[in-house]
Design brief:
1 helix; 7-stranded mixed β-sheet
Length: 125
C-alpha cells in the first residue's frame, strides 16, 4: 500500500519559515499529481499548492508569493517551502497524491486519493 509521510511541521513566530517534506513510498505518486492541503480547526480543508506531470503548478492566492512547492523525483519527495508565515497559516498540512494525471491537477482532491497523516504547523503572533 502506498504511503505518504509528511514531516517538517512545528511552531514558529509570525514572519518565520518552515519547509515541509512529503516522502512517497512509490515513485509514481510523486510524478503524476501531488499537492498540499491544509485544515485549520473548525474550518474546511483548503487547497494550498499542487504539481501535475503536465507542468501545471498551482498555488492558492492566500499563500502566493510566500509558499513554494517543489519536488525531487530522485528522492520521491515533495516539498513546501513556507516563508513569511502568518497566524492564519496555522493548520494541519496534508500531502495528497494520485498515481495518474487528473487534469487540472490540484483543483479537487477526494477521500479516495492517497493522503498522508498530516503535520501540524502553528504560527504565533
Amino acid at each position: 500500500q502506498v504511503q505518504l509521510a509528511e514531516s517538517g511541521g512545528g511552531s514558529v513566530e509570525a514572519g518565520g519559515s518552515l519547509r515541509l517534506s512529503c516522502v512517497a513510498s512509490v515513485y509514481s505518486y510523486i510524478t503524476y499529481c501531488i499537492g498540499w492541503v491544509r485544515q485549520a480547526p473548525g474550518k474546511e480543508r483548503e487547497r494550498v499548492a499542487s504539481i501535475g506531470s503536465d507542468g501545471d503548478t498551482r498555488v492558492a492566492d492566500s499563500v502566493k508569493g510566500r509558499f513554494t512547492i517543489s519536488q525531487d523525483g530522485a528522492k520521491n519527495t515533495l516539498y513546501l517551502q513556507m516563508n513569511n508565515l502568518k497566524p492564519e497559516d496555522t493548520a494541519v498540512y496534508y500531502c495528497v497524491a494520485i498515481p495518474y494525471l487528473r487534469s487540472p491537477c490540484g483543483l479537487s482532491w477526494y477521500s479516495d486519493d492517497t493522503w498522508g497523516q498530516g503535520t501540524q504547523v502553528t504560527v504565533s503572533s
